[in-house]
Amino acid sequence: MKKIINDPLSVVNESLEGLLFSQKDFYEKVPDVNGIIMKKRKKKVSVVSGGGSGHEPMLSGLVGEGMLDGVAMGSVFASPDPNTISKTIESADQGDGVLCLVWNYAGDTMNFAVAQEFAMMNGVRVEQVIVNDDVASATKEDKDGRRGVAGMLFVAKIAGAAAAFGYSLQEVKAAAEKANGNLRSIGIALTPCSIPGNPPNFIIGEDEFEYGMGIHGEPGIKREKLKKADEIVDEMMEDLIADFGSLEGKEVIVFVNGMAATTSLELNIINRRVNQILQAKKITVYDNIVNSYCTSLEMAGASISIMVLDEELKKLYNQPAYTPCYYHKGK
Fold first, then answer.
1. Catalytic entry in 55, 87, 157, 273
2. Residue 106: in which H helix or E strand, if any?
3. How far apart are alpha carbons 298 and 215 in whole angstroms?
4. 36 & 170 share domain
5. Last residue of a domain, which of 181, 213, 229?
6. What residue ranges of the chain have pLDDT lower than 50?
7. Would you call 328 a catalytic residue per the annotation?
8. What tens digit of pLDDT does each residue of 240-296 get?
9. What element of type H or E holds 285?
10. Predicted local confidence at residue 330, as pLDDT
11. What residue numbers bound the domain in which 138 lies?
């Protein structure tokens, strides 16, 4: 598939260089590895994440005020290595400890665990929260087996706000765990994507879509004939709400996310139906985000994420946040 690149093996390095040119007053590079941290750091718990490239602006674009303090960047759809992660952790630390937010994939969890040991040996206090919001990847009874996907946006928002409030490392971790526990996501794909230099990572018919597709092209629950947007959203929302149980009377935040090639026109059609369903079920939408924050290279598709609020999560969510790719003015 056609891409505007030089060398497939250099895409992450060259993309990072370009990012640092455009955000030189905001980010700085972690020496010797593909990691970035905020240039102006405050004395507080630091929040660090990381993962494979190809999902931009997640995760690199979520580094900023009230969000992440640093990100370790791996190759396309591949975990960063432990050395990259540990150096990013150590560079971000301001003496109050570091919370790592880790997508639930084998490579990420393994490498972050090793990196945590390295950083702790160098005197940094480190905790981690595994983000696993994808209801399609495992059953409700096996939530620990679920993948992390676009809901990372909410976990980063809550953890970043807790750290900005001056919470201790354990308190920031508890807030992030609560956000993750109150969070569910599901996605679909209409077209494949391809890692630079490689063929498409799956084949799908022009009249088909994949239900429950992962952000790296992992197979979904089923493949169906393409149908009307409302019918697709009805199916997605039924599975999301069933996984929560009853949401009647609850306040939620809704995030409709594009996988990269999906237009705003389509995302807003999806969002229209999501809100119609929630209104009919007497579920209050406290905030509503429609944007492409967790992409999959050039894949066409979308995901829906819902986080249920309580008073603590609402207080944290209401705090302002600003990154080059994400802005929340606060309430």
1. 55
2. helix 106-121
3. 11
4. yes
5. 181
6. none
7. no
8. 999 999 899 999 999 999 999 999 999 999 999 999 999 999 999 999 999 999 999
9. strand 284-291
10. 83
11. 12-181
